Amino acid sequence: MGELGKTLILIGTLLVVGGLLLTFSDKLPFGRLPGDITVRRDGLTLYLPLGTSLLLSLLLSLILTLAFSVLRR
User: pLDDT for 33-72, tens place per residue?
Assistant: First the structure.
């Protein structure tokens, strides 16, 4: 049951951090990074956040790698 408890704490912590990021996302530079593509035409806006997706993927991979290495101890 100890491992389950640690896993639930990790999931809860990640949810809190994600919620804080979404709450304060207007102050973060995400969405305006180099590599993000915005196409505006008559009545259509297409947004492809490629740079933001790469950065968030890298950060999430790093955080999860560190978290799982701590859980294995």
Answer: 788 888 999 999 998 888 888 988 998 899 889 888 887 8
Give me the torsion for CA of 57, 61, 63, 69, rounded to 10°.
170
How many CA atoms does the CB half-sphere of 11 hold within 13 Å? 6
Global pTM exceeds 0.70: no
Distance CA 69, CA 48 (A): 33
Q: Residue 47 has which token pair?
A: 């947004």
**Residue 29: predicted pLDDT:** 65
Q: Where are the domains of the chain?
A: 2-72
Number of CB atoms found within 10 A of residue 69's CB: 9
Question: Do 52 and 31 form a contact (C-beta atoms < 8 A)?
Answer: yes
